Amino acid sequence: MSQFTVTGQFKTRDGYAEFETTVDAENEDVAREHALSQLGSQHGLKRTEIDLEEVDAQ
């Protein structure tokens, strides 16, 4: 498995907040899914409220 750094922003009460998270995944698509799942769970967000800007392999 590879590590991927996922960056983007998500909607908050006051506008948007930027984030950067590192996930272990087999490929970029799986890394995107893990990031959406983590942020949605931690912040109570729907997938449409999260904008993924970049996925980089490390």
From TrEMBL:
<protein>
    <recommendedName>
        <fullName>Large ribosomal subunit protein eL20</fullName>
    </recommendedName>
</protein>
<dbReference type="GO" id="GO:1990904">
    <property type="term" value="C:ribonucleoprotein complex"/>
</dbReference>
<dbReference type="InterPro" id="IPR023573">
    <property type="entry name" value="Ribosomal_eL20_dom"/>
</dbReference>
<dbReference type="GO" id="GO:0006412">
    <property type="term" value="P:translation"/>
</dbReference>
<dbReference type="Pfam" id="PF01775">
    <property type="entry name" value="Ribosomal_L18A"/>
</dbReference>
<comment type="subunit">
    <text>Part of the 50S ribosomal subunit. Binds 23S rRNA.</text>
</comment>
<keyword id="KW-0699">rRNA-binding</keyword>
<keyword id="KW-0694">RNA-binding</keyword>
<keyword id="KW-0687">Ribonucleoprotein</keyword>
<keyword id="KW-0689">Ribosomal protein</keyword>
<dbReference type="GO" id="GO:0070180">
    <property type="term" value="F:large ribosomal subunit rRNA binding"/>
</dbReference>
<feature type="domain" description="Large ribosomal subunit protein eL20">
    <location>
        <begin position="1"/>
        <end position="55"/>
    </location>
</feature>
<dbReference type="GO" id="GO:0005840">
    <property type="term" value="C:ribosome"/>
</dbReference>
<dbReference type="GO" id="GO:0003735">
    <property type="term" value="F:structural constituent of ribosome"/>
</dbReference>
<comment type="similarity">
    <text>Belongs to the eukaryotic ribosomal protein eL20 family.</text>
</comment>
<dbReference type="InterPro" id="IPR028877">
    <property type="entry name" value="Ribosomal_eL20"/>
</dbReference>
